[in-house]
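User: Hey, my collaborator sent me this sequence without any context and asked if I could get a structure. I don't really work with proteins. Can you help?
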Amino acid sequence: MTNQSVHRGRFRISTEAAKSTLYLAAITAVMILILFTRDDSIARDTEQIVQYLSEYTKIPNVVTSVILGTRLFDTIGEVTVFTIAGLGVKILLHDEDAEEQFVGIDDQVIRLLLDFAALLSCFLAIDLAVKGHLTPGGGFASGVAGATSITLLMITGRIQQVEAFYFGSNAPALEKVAVVFFILVALSTFSSFLLPDSAFAAIPPTVYIPALNIIAALKVTIGSWSILRLFIVKRGVL
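Assistant: No problem. I've predicted the 3D structure and written it out in structure-token form, which is a compact way to encode the shape of the chain:
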């Protein structure tokens, strides 16, 4: 009976290996087929494309023009994936016990430097959100800078104050509102393309692209903050 179980286990393993090999071979064949059948004869003037995007959106930052203009549908997917990732972290750490005592950085010199870095990150986040359509930056970069500022405050022993502000300002609800607003503004821009005579078509990109930048910055900041605070609350600062 034992030998039969061993043989069955070996057969099952070999079958899984055969399936994996088959999938890998199929994917490789498809990629090779695409590689050799792709038509590279179509000339692309990248400089002309960049100039067209800049003139169409009237946004100096062409990267933002692409993300929040011509590829806004992909950006909605990225916001959705980020939201689901945050939900996954909450589910993963839900059953873990919270730390009773938090040990932060207590060196006064280092705390002073981190406070200064947190202040700079905060101002950088605001600048990237408000001026992201004019200079390099944007909502996602602003969100990272904002979350970095908050994280620096948490690791310097101020987690109780940060937690009080988190729940006092109802940050989780604010994050959900930001997601809804981002999707609504994005859908309104889509409708302007589908219905050129609608009221949404009158909104220029110089209005809705900065708005999307600010909303995305708020969502990414609070979302990253929610994820990081969970790790700190459940597993400690250091």
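In plain terms: The CA atoms of residues 143 and 220 lie 5 Å apart. You can pass these tokens on to your collaborator as they are.
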